[in-house]
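Form 12-C: Joint structure prediction
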Amino acid sequence: MSSIATSIESASRERIALRQVHVRWLIMLVVACGAIVVFFPFFWMAVTSLKTAPEIQRVPLQIVPDHWFNLSNYVEVFKREAFLRYLLNSTIVASIAAVSSVVVSSLAGFGFAKYRFPGRDVFFLAIVGILMVPFQSVVVPLYVWMNELGLLDTYAGIVAPDLVSVFGVFLMRQAIEMIPNDYIDAARIDGASELRIFFLVILPSVKPAIATLLIIKFLWSWNEFFWPMVVISSPQMKVVTMGLMSFTNMYFIEYNLLTAAAVISILPILLIFITLQRWVVQAVVMSGLKG
Amino acid sequence: MRQWFRIAFPRNYLDRRKRAGFLFVLPALLFFGSVFLLPLAQSILYSFYKIAPGGAKEFVGVRLYEKVLTDSTFWTAVGNTVQLLLFSVPVTVVLALAVALGLNRVSNLKWRNVWASMYFLPFATSLVAAALIWQWIYEPVYGFLNYALSFVGIPPQKWLQSLSQVLPSLAVVSVWVRIGFDTMIFLAALQSIPEEYYEAANMDGASGMQRVRYITLPLLNAQIVMVCILELIFNFKIFDQVYVTTQGGPAGASQTIIGLLYDTAFKFFRFGDASVMAVFVFVTLMLVTLLQWRLFRKPVEY
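Section 2 - Result
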């Protein structure tokens, strides 16, 4: 009697298990298809950049390029526009933004996490409140001031509003809070000054947070478009995102060149991104800020 | 006041330590003060002045507010922005949630990472590049989308060049760019839900759907609210994608609020009008953020 019951039970269990396997494969399939759809524009950009102008105007459309190693579009991009200069400009601006962000944010994070001084909590709340102020709401006065300071069309002008972000202060404060106070006190007993403690105790213990902030800030700064459009007017000061714009106009767009330029603009950031993705994901998850 | 005096002129070790703390945060305070707070105050001030291109200012009270807020161009731009929001925010959040739930069920870690990376890649791309790639896909004659649709018998569409299709088409770009970001937030939240909850539900004979409905979604409540607000803010400030593809066209059908602000300030150099719009954007987003804080008060219990 009981053996029949168990055999029925095990049979139904097997069926459920089998169904679960099916469901799992189905989910896997849907997730994979979605990923391929999301990835497709990158693929399409890459193959278009390898085609010639007549090739992309073929009807019916042809997916693969005639020659996989046709790099003439890339050569043409560098010939027609000062694209190397744009890459250099973006690199300079994004590096300054990333480094200054780390320096100022970790100093502030240390101050907020490990010291007590009058007004500390009010100041911190005020900084978090800055998240509510969209950059576009302050852009007109910033432009006027940059003009008065003679910083329009300079690196200093592009990078100025980008030097620190609220996210950075938030991230560094969070990370520094984790450091045990005993370490700091031990350094104090040994006679270290507060600044020495910052450099020798604090900074080495928050390397992961620093890496995260460096990467995410570089990425944001590299992709910036609105502010550079406002401050930059001369061709040699353009950043990469503006350089891309040079290949479009209202009437006629050479998509083979445009996609090649897009590949050039995306590739450096994508390589950084893929190799260091762990840190970026961490940053995103940390607070999903940068409203 | 006395406290501040003692920090300025420390008498003992503890005072000096307080001063050190204050000095550490000072650069950040100066930066945010001069790059956000002062200009914000200045924006509000500007919105009451008529500013000639030469720089001459004339106080006009609320005249500019009357002018901008009764201008149909302004409200068309606001309407377009809201329409874009209504297309892209729900789609992004629902798709991201579905993708995160799916990824969470992929038990092979290597494959899960591969798929997750693919969803996440557009996040690293600049909005400018993203929009231009999509513009090429949308191209009416040589574009891939019309080509693909021809296989299911749909005639060529004009997408970005069509009055009725331009907003949904732009919304798709926003969805594409943002889906990975939202997915990552959801996925991290899903992985922090204790396994025992699901085991208990299994004991009670809950189906897969029931587990999602009664365990996962309620526990994800906080993240869903947060992501919705973030998407709302992100899409309200939409500019790059529109500016590089349609520049607000055709015939103003995709002009957004920030696009109009940019044109007003930096094409026509009407700083006063632009400042009114800046104040409008600030106030709207502040209300949204305050709403977020209210909603966040509700604690989620694990």
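Section 3 - Comments
Chain A has 15 helices and no strands. The radius of gyration of chain A is 26 Å.
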